[in-house]
Every structure is written in C-alpha cells, then in structure tokens.
Amino acid sequence: MDRKSISCCFTGHRPEKLPWGTDERDPRCAALKEELACHLEGIYLAGCRHFLCGMARGCDLYFAEAVLALRQKYGDVTLEAAIPCDTQADGWRADERRRYEHLLAESDEVRFVAHRYTPGCMQRRNRYMVDASSVLLAVFNGTPGGTMQTILYAQRSALKVITVEI
Predict the structure, then answer these.
(1) Which of 80, 119, 151, 160 is the least buried, fewest Cβ under 10 Å from its Cβ?
(2) pLDDT (tens digit, 9 = 90+) per residue, 43-93?
(3) Can you give the three-state secondary structure of the chain, one letter per residue?
(4) What is the pLDDT of residue 61?
(5) Which residue range forms the structural domain that includes residue 86?
(6) Residue 64: CATH number of its domain
(7) How many structural domains does the chain have?
(8) 8 - beta bridge partners?
(9) pTM to 2 decimals?
C-alpha cells in the first residue's frame, strides 16, 4: 500500500476568519475541536494513518493537536508538519510560537517546502499536502482564500474531501 492512500491532509482558516477569533474558550471553538476529533477518528478507522498539517495559526494547530491526541489512542498515527518556509512563525505572538514549536517537536516529520518566504510558498505547501494525500479534511466558512483554493485543488485532484462548515 502506498503512503498517499493512507494519508490525510488538512486545510482551514486562521483566527482572523473564525467567528471567535483567538478565543479558544468560546463554545463554538470547543465544538469545532470536538468535531475535528470525531472526523479524524473516522478517517483513521477508514484506513488513514499519516496526517499532514501546514501548521498555520488557527485551525491548522487545532488539527495538529487532534492528530497528536489520536496518536495517543492509536500508536500507528503519524503527523507530518508541512511548513511553507522556515520563517512561518517569526511574526507570531510568543504564546503562539511556543505552541507551534511544541507541535513541531511532537511531529514525526517536518518538511520545509521553501527555505525563505516567497509569494506562492503557502500555495506550494498546500499543493504538496494535497499531492501526498488521498483525503482532505477542511474547515471552511465559504469565503475566498487559501482554504477555498486548497479545497478546489483537492477536488480537481480527486481526493475525498470532508468539509466542516463554520
């Protein structure tokens, strides 16, 4: 069995596009995290073992944390951090950077798509993840942007797309 057939990637919004922003105590955020965990377990039970995450602020970090929780339950789960460039977290708040660094340290693999930021490196990261996967899990609010572009690319690439609408 090839790795792509057992791989699932993720796309979702940053806090600026979430109704609760950065307030993860909001009940809507807690509900989303629970829904992500349920979808991830279903995806695992359907055969996926490798999970790819772009490690952006917001939903990506929720996804990575849910994958690590799934790994606690099922030991054969792996997390790959697909980083668009090595400076991704440089402008983040200190608490966000600590969370990011912790998740990178817990990841089974860390792959940098580009060394330095360039226009298009985020899109190259997203395409890398889709090209390496058979399933895309997405958190999407219907607005144009990188999440929508990734969903459309995954659909054109014939991935199974599971969308959590917020």
Answers:
(1) 119
(2) 999 999 999 999 999 999 999 999 999 999 999 999 999 999 999 999 999
(3) CCHHHHEEEEECCCHHHCCCCCCCCCHHHHHHHHHHHHHHHHHHHCCCCEEEECCCCCHHHHHHHHHHHHHHHCCCCEEEEEEEECCCCCCCCHHHHHHHHHHHHHCCEEEEEECCCCCCHHHHHHHHHHHCCCEEEEEECCCCCHHHHHHHHHHHCCCEEEEEEC
(4) 98
(5) 3-165
(6) 3.40.50.450
(7) 1
(8) 51, 135
(9) 0.97
